[in-house]
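Whiteboard transcription, Tuesday session. T.W. wrote the structure tokens on the left side:
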């Protein structure tokens, strides 16, 4: 379980999902790749459970950049919303091939714009970066909270 002590937030994610994301990411090596994170918050809103991903239909990835388009993902999102518990878009993930799981300036800008987007219903988007510096997988979970980015430990 991942935690941000100062905010009292916790997060968990299935090992199978992580393995799958790592596997998908490796297929796109040396380019960055990623997608949408699906999950739900506890009733108290302080525990996030990430359960699934939706992969983008349209994206651009280079070794140092990843951009996804949300085109055509509504149907998949609706399917998750029908499940019990209801699952919805909670954030984003992408890989950093040959790099640490630290958000770049562009990553931070992207997360800020998601949090500020009135058409996006989440105010605290999560960000997962799968780093792979020196062939070692490192997971970096972050959340945007009141205009700051915090890392889960
Ligand atoms: Zn990045």
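and on the right, the sequence the group agreed on:
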């Amino acid at each position: 379980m991942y935690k941000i002590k100062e905010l009292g937030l916790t997060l968990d994610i299935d090992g199978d999902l992580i393995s799958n994301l790592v596997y998908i990411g490796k297929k796109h090596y040396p380019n960055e790749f990623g997608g949408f994170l699906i999950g739900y918050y506890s009733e108290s809103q302080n525990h996030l459970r990430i359960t699934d991903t939706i992969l983008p239909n349209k994206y651009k990835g280079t070794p140092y950049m990843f951009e996804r388009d949300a085109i055509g993902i509504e149907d998949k999102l609706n399917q998750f919303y029908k499940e019990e518990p209801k699952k919805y878009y909670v954030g984003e993930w992408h890989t950093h091939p040959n790099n640490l799981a630290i958000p770049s300036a562009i990553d931070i800008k992207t997360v800020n714009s998601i949090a500020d987007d009135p058409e996006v219903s989440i105010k605290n988007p999560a960000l997962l970066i799968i780093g792979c510096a020196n062939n070692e997988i490192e997971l970096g979970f972050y959340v945007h909270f009141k205009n700051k980015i915090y890392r889960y430990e």
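Someone added at the bottom: The chain is about 20% helix and 45% strand.
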